[in-house]
Design a protein that fits this description.
The protein has about 180 residues and is an alpha+beta fold. It has a single domain, classed as Chalcone isomerase (3-Layer(bba) Sandwich), CATH 3.50.70. Helices cover about 15% and strands about 30% of the residues. The strands form 2 sheets. The protein has a 6-stranded antiparallel β-sheet with strand order 3-4-5-6-7-8. Strands 1-2 form a two-stranded antiparallel ribbon. Strand 7 and strand 8 form a beta hairpin. The longest helix has 18 residues. The two termini are about 15 Å apart. The N terminus is likely disordered.
């Protein structure tokens, strides 16, 4: 029961942070590109549906997806041998974390935005990576700007090849 409460609190906190306005940067992030992948391809991600949340030792992450990908998730993907449709897009928003000192229980909540990672399926534009493009846009609090990591949209492909049988996607859509 305690685990469920903590999980729900984490989802709530992350959702508030996402829907409460992640658009803190003054630069036009939608002009940024990594090769053929543009941040503009993900315009409106702040309002996409939550797929799942995750946590590392230092970060809280929320994974959101566009309607195309959400429909595929609801149909049971990722699954062995099944492919996500063209136009699927997913974004992972990453924050450092801090303890919520006001909560009546121990819970970590988002602190400072660190990066926005993107994945898009477009087999015509990205044939070398089985149709997927990967981008990571790091956020600097000091300059209040995003910068692309790397020079092309292939950066995440090497990490995702271990998930080839599930169309290169790690995150499952958990039961709700």
């Amino acid at each position: 029961m305690r685990v469920k409460i903590i999980a729900l609190a984490l989802i709530g906190a992350v959702s508030l942070a996402v829907f409460g306005g992640i658009a803190v940067a003054q630069q036009d992030r939608y002009t940024l590109k990594l090769g053929l992948l543009s941040f503009d391809d993900f315009k409106g991600y702040e309002n996409w549906r939550v797929v799942a949340v995750s946590q590392t030792k230092t970060q809280l992450k929320v994974i959101v997806a566009n309607d195309v990908m959400m429909d595929a998730y609801r149909q049971g993907l990722p699954a062995e041998g099944k492919l996500f449709p063209e136009g699927s897009k997913v974004v992972k928003i990453e924050w450092s974390m801090k303890k919520n000192t006001k909560a009546p229980y121990s819970v970590e909540v988002p602190d400072t935005l660190q990066a926005v990672a993107t994945i898009e399926k477009d087999s015509k534009r990205f044939p070398d990576t089985h149709g997927w493009a990967y981008g990571n846009f790091n956020y600097s609090v000091a300059s209040n700007t995003f910068t692309p990591q790397g020079t092309d949209a292939k950066c995440g492909y090497a990490c995702h090849t271990r998930m080839a049988s599930q169309d290169y996607i790690y995150t499952a859509y958990p039961f709700r």
